[in-house]
Design goal:
The protein has helices at 2-62, 83-94. By secondary structure, it is mainly α. The radius of gyration is 30 Å and the shape is rod-shaped. The structure holds zinc ion. The site of zinc ion has 6 residues, from helix 2.
Amino acid sequence: MGIEVLQLVMELEAKLKAILEEIQELKMYAYALEEQNEQLREKLYAQQQQGTAYDNLAKLYEEGFHVCHAHFGRFRPQNEDCLFCLSFLHKNNKDGSERRE
Ligand SMILES: [Zn+2]
C-alpha cells in the first residue's frame, strides 16, 4: 500500500515536470510570437508612412507638377503626362516595400 502511494506520487511528479517543460516551451513560443508581432507592426507602420508619401506625390502630380527625379517640382506644361513620373508613381504604388531609387 505504502509503496503504491509512493509510486503514484512519483508518477505525478514526472507528469508535473513534463507539464512544466511544456509551459516553458509555450513561454518561449509566446515570446517569439510577441517579437514577430512587434516586427510586423514596425513594418506596417513603415509601409503606412510610405503610403502617405506616395499619396502626397500622386496628389502633387495631379496638381500638375513633376515628381520624377529628372524634373522634380517643375510644372508640367498643359498637364502633359510624364513617363518618368508615371513609372515612378507606378513603381512606388505597386510595392511599398521596394527600395526607392
Ligand atoms: Zn516627370
